[in-house]
Amino acid sequence: MDFVGLSVRLTDEDVAVVTMCNGDNTFTLDYVRTWNQALDFIDTHPKIVGIITTGEGRSFSTGLDVDWLKAQTAQALDEYHEALHKLYKRILAIGITTVAAVNGHAIAEGAFIALVHDFRLMREDRGWVQWPEVHMKLPFTKTMVDIFKLKVPCVISQREALVFGKRLDAKRGVALGIIDRAVPAPSLMSEALVTLQKARGNMKLDRHFFGVMKEDLYTNYIRRESSAAKL
Amino acid sequence: MAGTLTLNFSDDGFATIQMVNGENRFQTPVIDEWNRTLDSVLQNQSVRGLLITGSGKFFSNGIDLQWLGQQQAEATGQFMSKLQDLMRRILVFPVPTAALINGHAFGGGAFLALACDFRIMRPDRGWLNWPETAIGLRFGEPLLQLARTKIPAGKVQREALLFAKRLSGPEAKDLDLVDHVVEDSKMADVAKEMINKCLGKNGLGRDIVRVMKKDIYGKELDLSKL
Q: Which candidate among A93, A107, B93, B186 keeps its CA 20 to 30 Å from the CA of A200?
């Protein structure tokens, strides 16, 4: 199923492969909407037992489209952040096992998208994960911080990644507990599949119930903050 | 309910509670027995550490779901409330506690082990497991709060809680959910050594130990009424 800049393919094993295929896959309000369309599609397919998200080309996603950002009013940006937070929480609590197969740069929104998946695999030889917000003078919202801390409780990792916005290659990403595994590029997708299968084991995960379990662990624990930082 | 627990005091200042009832599952009368036994432990002023263990293949398989299914709604609520209270009581017990996980610790049994200060497992037998996701059972907020006091966010919560992984001793140790992995016959000695290291030459006052546990573990759950 093709959306604007994003495709969803179903494999024989009932895994949905979500491929971001829009250049550097930068985020705008429209791209958030596209993502929701893809998730709506997945929602209507009860057989899907796993989601693997990846990017095409050199980037997973390089984050916010800066040109688009500059043209937005403060109100439009608030709307964008509201929608973005909802998307993060939607992926975070989806009742399906999810793996981010990080094929290249995962920056800011791209890094958060990877983070809200259950697992993160990254190609070992190229690309970095980064939250550059400190360098752009863009504070995080409480929601963003809570999401990060829920997935990466190590305080040193929080310092390196969030406070100081370091560029993290796959090896560093693994060392900081942000990336689960760094793998050779040709095996990225097959390893993502193995990760999915190992996680699910023999469990029959009812979609509604598994979503509730994720809500209990994750989204119910996140503070709400709807307004974006002042730019 | 006689015959579910035994209590022994040793000359070196330790009390050992052993669960001796098959799968050591929890019902309301079992919890009542637990509370009486813990009272007896505290009444003995020479006790400076508490060891908790099971027998045979089982530490504890958790809640007796079959029994629970036969109870009326009010009794069910009362049971869950008592179980949560027992877990909290052990969580802030005024002497150091160690769970000697001799065999399977599932669900409520895993929570019992978690509520202790220290956990020891065998290398060759027994799983530590929260099966809730696999059996379609939510944790409920009180037990989830207890889980959060000892199970860190991120990978460990994902593996242990969300994906209900069956953890062998070495796997649990890898996730820092247990402190030591040793063979059955050495568990008690290792536990006593760990607790004695805490106590040192001068020991630790019961009141301050309880207050410390309340303060440190009380971020995630409300222990103010204890």
A: A107
Helix axes B141-150, B108-115, angle to 10 degrees: 50
CA distance B183 to chain A (A): 28
pTM for the complete prediction? 0.92
Fold for domain B5-217? 2-enoyl-CoA Hydratase; Chain A, domain 1 (3.90.226)
Say if A201 is an interface residue toward chain B (CB within 8 Å). Answer: yes
A64 residue type, one letter: L
How confident is the model over A53-105, as pLDDT tens digits? 999 999 999 999 999 999 999 999 999 999 999 999 999 999 999 999 999 99
Which helix or strand (DSSP H or E) is residue B53 part of?
strand B49-53
Report d(CA B10, CA A225) in Å as an integer.
56
Please report where in the chains the tokens 């222990």 appear, as a residue.
Answer: B223
CB-CB neighbours of A208 under 10 Å: 8
From the number of C-beta atoms within 10 Å of its C-beta (0-12, 13-18, 19+), residue B82 rates as: middle
Cβ-contact A88, A229 below 8 angstroms = no
Strand partners, B100: B53, B120
Render pLDDT for B204-215 as a digit per residue (tens, 0 to 9): 999 999 999 998
Could you give the residue ranges of the DSSP H alpha helices within chain B? 28-43, 65-69, 73-91, 108-115, 132-135, 141-150, 155-157, 169-174, 187-199, 206-217
Point out the residue among B133, B144, B153 whose CB comes nearest to the CB of A153: B153
